[in-house]
Amino acid sequence: MTDFPGAPDPKAPRKGLRVLAAMSGGVDSAVAAARAAEAGHDVTGVHLALSANPQSFRTGARGCCTIEDSRDARRAADVIGIPFYCWDLAERFREDVVEDFVAEYEAGRTPNPCLRCNEKIKFAALLDKALALGFDAVCTGHYATVVRGEDGTRELHRASDMAKDQSYVLGVLDDRQLAHAMFPLGDTLTTKDEIRAEAERRGLAVAKKPDSHDICFIADGDTRGFLANRLGRAEGDIVDESGAKVGTHEGAYGFTIGQRKGLRIGHPAADGKPRYVLDISPVNNTVTVGPVEALDVIALTAIRPRWCGAAPQGPGTYTAQLRAHGGETEVAAELVGDELQVRFTEPVRGVAPGQAIVLYDGTRVVGSATIATTERARAAQAAQSA
Q1: How far apart are CA 29 and CA 21, in angstroms?
Q2: Residue 221: what pLDDT?
Q3: What span, in angstroms and rounded, lies between the C-alpha atoms of 135 and 237?
Q4: Of 256, 304, 257, 301, which is closest to residue 119 (Cα–Cα)?
Q5: Is pLDDT of 348 > 70?
Q6: pLDDT digit string (tens) for 245-266?
Q7: Are the beta carbons of 339 and 353 closer than 8 angstroms?
Q8: pLDDT of residue 55
């Protein structure tokens, strides 16, 4: 299979695992690839071209996936002393990540494109291609840890440094994917400054490169403007909980549950307190706003569960994370049929359909699912008193 670009030579002397290192052009993935090579693995670097127009995916330090990034990744691979290739996955990325993102917002939901990219691109399309070419594992610069049990099974755990933990966006990985995943940065207690210092010691020019942030395919960070260009402007009403009109909008897709800023409501609430987005209805193109306490959620139902190991049996107590940079909260959860039913010990706010809920048992990632419906505390109280 050596006629495929990036395929390892099966006749070459084998040292350690044959590892395909996904190199974004940033400091984390470069150091991860260097550590994998230093550990004795046979490493090949690959940069994923995810845009048909690479210049459109970056403005300043935002995003990734530009021509500049591919060149930075190539230079890092040269310094490390590993082969390097660029693979075009732009069409797959557009279909599985960008179009999914637009469709979810159009349906009134709040997706996480980074999580979808890990599921569909880095540990599906990329991993499948890597295995077909004879590689044993895919290495990335994520901060998470894979622990191998005595029986050979793998578990996904939080990074040793909770401040940098990225296990939330990896909660979609299944048994097979974990068996071929390598995260060299996850089990070391190092600050980002120390990672940069390590890159500098290794002679990697990306040592001082700014981190990418926000959504990589929205170059200027203007999510509402990006969606408006894709979906068109559709004026509708902003209403309060009674249904009274309090303002207008140019597209319900431009809002998320729990949003406070940018509502452009003409007059204050009767109590003078801020109002938040409580509900988004794409059917009648309305956005409902109300007081912050109306956001309290006590339970939810999630669909399309993915388990980092065997599916849990019966009810259990876990901690849950609802956002990539959110904290943990205690929950009782049970898989009923194909749905995950979750009840919170204490009410939580800002929970939106489309988001991922990731369950943990200590530091171990149990699995994830996509939030479909939520139960609000005020609605439950009203039902009980009726």
Answers
A1: 8
A2: 81
A3: 54
A4: 304
A5: yes
A6: 999 999 999 999 999 988 888 7
A7: no
A8: 52
**C-alpha–C-alpha distance, residues 20 and 2, integer Å:** 14
One-letter amino acid at 54 equals P
Furthest C-alpha separation in the chain: 77
Q: Do residues 291 and 246 make contact, with C-beta atoms less than 8 angstroms apart?
A: no
- Indicate the pLDDT class of residue 31, thresholds 50, 70 and 90: very high
Q: How confident is the model at residue 62 (pLDDT cuts 50, 70, 90)?
A: very low
Cβ-based neighbour number of residue 310 at 10 Å: 10
122 SS3 class:
helix
DSSP reduced 3-state for 287: strand
Q: Count, in order, helices (H) and strands (E) of the chain.
A: 10, 17
pLDDT confidence of residue 15: 63
Structure letter (DSSP) for residue 275: -
Nearest one of 224, 237, 230, 232 to 280, comparing CA atoms: 237
Give me the chain's average pLDDT, please.
88
Residues 6 or more apart whose Cβ sits within 8 Å of residue 283: none
For 41, 102, 149, 234, 282, the CA distances from 105, given in Å and listed in that order, are 42, 5, 40, 13, 9
State how far the Cα of 248 lies from the Cα of 263, in Å rounded to an integer: 9
Q: Which residues are catalytic?
A: 117, 216
Closest CA to 319 of 342, 296, 335, 298: 342
Q: Which residue type sits at 225?
A: G
From 250, 244, 357, select the one nearest 305 (Cα to Cα).
Answer: 357
> pLDDT tens digits for 291-318?
999 999 999 999 999 999 889 999 999 9
